[in-house]
């Protein structure tokens, strides 16, 4: 069974084509600068080298149509007919309280996703455009929606509610939803599979750490808590997002800087985080270079970044009554050994003891990095959200 997975953003369309019989990735790539001058499709060619094809792509249907044409292209393609694509899976960011699992996409589902646009105005509209594009180009092919928020819908009200007037929840749905759910679900399942653990009897903390970052507490296969909230801004310090901050400080800044809602959102989502503290970059490679030069702001930002992760791990271990398994994933979690070591330092009282030699030599691979005598396991698991989406599609179709 061949399944196409799409992730449609406002100015990009990422894709992977899977042969689910062999779990082989037949093709992958993405359109960038969608709707802007100089738009192009970048993908991995048959020889393993990157290929870039420039084309004017004003909107999502044109982008998806171009991707499909390349998949069938004699020089670059891997299918002879569109009939080989038996289903399409979409990453849908916000399902609110409406969706606790992946679903076959119908007109009613789209209507409900549209009702969540207010909660994710930057993400849900382009997600829907991807669905519409497939509907127009491959009208007979079933489509499945996989929601970033769905995995976290097992949280109890005491974990997801904010201490705001209750009518704001009833009227506007103001509560914690959490994101990166597909990634947290994949790495927790994958780690238990590798280690031979029963996920339904295991206390797991998953740390998806990258430019966007979140942590989840998963007890007996269900999410107890997660760090992102109503939006992806809450929780950990991220590339350009501030994470947790005193709401009173934001009210103070609104008054002092004369900010409206859009201005405040721009400040906390695009100008803060690692970029805001370092005043260098949101790219950890550039920050690490700054640390090597002795840049005090870069050093401070990294200390803040690592400390916030450690603090959440401690909190979630307390919430679950212990931890059996800590998983690092995401761009930083998979590749930055210094953050993993700093975060795990001093967590021996939780049974988490990192093997410094294994950790230092590990980059981007699936591997246990805890000491042999560690009571709890520390593991790195590269995330594969697209494969998780494809599995959901296969199960539903």
UniProtKB/TrEMBL annotation:
EC number: 2.7.2.1
GO molecular function: kinase activity
Annotated ATP binding sites: 14, 208-212, 283-285, 331-335
Binding site for substrate: 91
UniProt keyword terms in alphabetical order: ATP-binding, Cytoplasm, Kinase, Magnesium, Metal-binding, Nucleotide-binding, Transferase
Site (Transition state stabilizer): 180, 241
Record's catalysed reaction(s): acetate + ATP = acetyl phosphate + ADP
Keyword Iron: no
SUPFAM superfamilies, per the entry: Actin-like ATPase domain
Compartment(s) of residence: Cytoplasm
Active-site residues, Swiss-Prot/TrEMBL: 148 (proton donor/acceptor)
Cofactor(s) listed in the protein's UniProt record: Mg(2+); Mn(2+)
PROSITE patterns with a match to the protein in the record: ACETATE_KINASE_1, ACETATE_KINASE_2
Cofactor note: Mg(2+). Can also accept Mn(2+).
Record carries keyword Kinase: yes
Pathway field: Metabolic intermediate biosynthesis; acetyl-CoA biosynthesis; acetyl-CoA from acetate: step 1/2
Binding residues annotated for Mg(2+), in chain numbering: 7, 385
Main location: cytoplasm
CDD domains: ASKHA_NBD_AcK_PK
Subunit-level organization: Homodimer.
Protein function: Catalyzes the formation of acetyl phosphate from acetate and ATP. Can also catalyze the reverse reaction.
Family: Belongs to the acetokinase family.
Protein name stated in the entry: Acetate kinase
